[in-house]
Amino acid sequence: MEFRDEELVLADGRTVAWTEYGPHDGVPLVRVPGTPSSRWAIRSDRDPWDERSLFVVTTERPGFGRSTRLPGRGFTEHADDIAAILDNLGIEQAYVSGGSGAAPHILAMCARHPDRVIAATVLAGISPLEPAEADGMIGLNRTVWECASRGDWAGIRDIHEPLMQRMRADPLASFEQVMATAPAEDQAVIRDEAWREVFTRSIREAFRQGVEGWTDASLAAFGNWPDIDPSMVRTSVTWWHGTDDRNTPYAAAKRLVSRLPNTRLITWPAGAGHMYAYQHEGEILDELLARTREI
Fold first, then answer.
1. Domains and CATH numbers, the chain
2. Backbone angles phi, psi at 289, to 5 degrees
3. Which tens digits make up the pLDDT trace of 44-80?
4. Is the omega angle on the peptide bond into residue 128 within 30 degrees of 0, that is, cis?
């Protein structure tokens, strides 16, 4: 089965793009990619999707790929974009899943459009950080967090620009360098040839417009999330996370989950890192699809 590459021009003139996979009458699943990424952040092995008859929509945030940049954005804007995509597809409700930098966008979707989300899953999601938690992150994230904490958009751009150029030229080598201190589980995923092929396409597409979309995303993600009120996220959410994750600290995730009214935290085994979910797609999907609207 082939992927379909789609886009929509919104009322404000922006373009929002996504990919589709599976039958239109399948179980609707919206996947929100991490950061940086694009609508081509897909699985090389689609068996878990086929086995569950899923209709999979993988979104793309402003400034990445073919999706128009929106300077100064937060998270509610992409939540509205997802709702517009669902309207375009004639889908009333969908399951929603995503990891890492997708977390605040998923929570914004649950808070802003609760009737559109059946249930949601967050995988090793980013959360607002305390300074001590930032100290334990991989070097790139720690440095970007320091800039974001003082609202330094230009500083983040200056960090990202040379890295983006290297990632465009050789996405895998640059990512391996960034993840050099990540746990062994993550390193195993990075060595998978099928994963590497998909990652390369997604990253090169992510930077189609340049570095600004990544900078916007990082400034928002490493900030204090003023456009999300955790008490309003009443959708059923399961948050999976590893205690050894050095991209998105576990302590910050645990603190945020405690503020979400209808969220369950599942802790991965010791040694599981940021990319553990990739090898456990079936288990994660089954847990998500077993949940129905609880409120």
1. 4-289 (3.40.50.1820)
2. -70, -20
3. 889 999 999 999 999 999 999 999 999 999 999 999 9
4. no
